[in-house]
Amino acid sequence: MKISELLKEKATISFEVFPPKNKEGDISSIYYTIEELAKLNPDFISVTYGAGGSSKGKTVEIASAIKNQYQIESVAHLSCITSAKEDILTECRALKEHNVDNILSLRGDYPAGEEEKYRDMNLEFHYASELNEFIRENFGDSFCLSGACYPEVHQEADCFRDDLEALKKKVDAGAEYLITQIFFDNSYYYRLVKEARKIGITVPILAGIMPVTNAKSLLRTAKLCGCSIPFQLSTMIETYYNYPEAMKEIGINYAAHQIIDLITNGVDGIHIYTMNKPEIAQRIFANIPTVLKELNHD
Ligand code: FAD
User: Fold this and answer.
1) Least reliable range by pLDDT among 52-61, 167-176, 190-199
2) Does ligand 1 have an atom closer than 6 angstroms to the CB of 156?
3) Which of 20, 65, 206, 235 has most Cβ atoms within 10 angstroms of its Cβ?
4) CA of 287 to the centre of ligand 1 (A)
């Protein structure tokens, strides 16, 4: 089923997982993660895409297992910046063979340390919007396409307006819903939705929430994603930096609080970056079961 069809009926709740990273390319631990997440009855689970490294090629396998083994809708991420058109055709055909109907279509980033190499190359794709066009040209409407968006502006964009105009192009090229980058201050999400609607972006915008349970990784992730840390949260981090259990409680409760506020304000959907830690998502669900029912979930 296409996620765009689901979103016509209700606000969704979904999870993101990534192919486990190890030298052997062993992904078996993902099955435990999926089984535990399945208990929370998500509308879909998305699987990230790594253009290189040991997890290359695992996205299709995992997205297929989610759909065909666990009967949960899956979304396969697909990035294009380092890909040839032929690679994208191969990937899309494999997704079709496994009945995966949904693609989160991304530009991606150059592999760390190889920026110069790719900058000098004649790239076949420059933006996610070109990937959308290419998939539509070759596969028609057979996939539901979605895209990424950035409440605090994509790091390479000069300003919010330019990024918003680029987002409009991505939607016009076929993205049927959007998922946001992480944010810890909901007002950035509300600004993005408000301004997007003003320029005619009407597709659902799902809020990407990351429950950060480790101070060090929170600071690293926020820097990497260009996402600010509100004063209140940064004070908590400073106070509890060396108390892992307290940081876990803070991360879970902070995410739950963000979700309550988003649902109260009519969010189109909540997408939780699980970091392959299902127990964290389970604890959030246990904290706010009645509020989550507002999104038609038990
Ligand atoms: P684009 O939409 O192409 O935008 C990239 C930049 O170009 C932006 O600054 C934008 O403003 C600008 N731009 C876009 N179109 C135009 C245009 N036509 N003219 C001028 N400027 C333009 N990365 C992975 O490698 N694997 C993943 O699985 C993955 N999953 C993600 C999931 C989510 C929900 C999010 C938010 C990000 C994810 N990423 C992933 C990271 C993403 O690949 C990077 O953020 C990347 O830098 C941008 O990808 P994009 O698809 O948003 O790019």
Assistant:
1) 52-61
2) yes
3) 206
4) 33
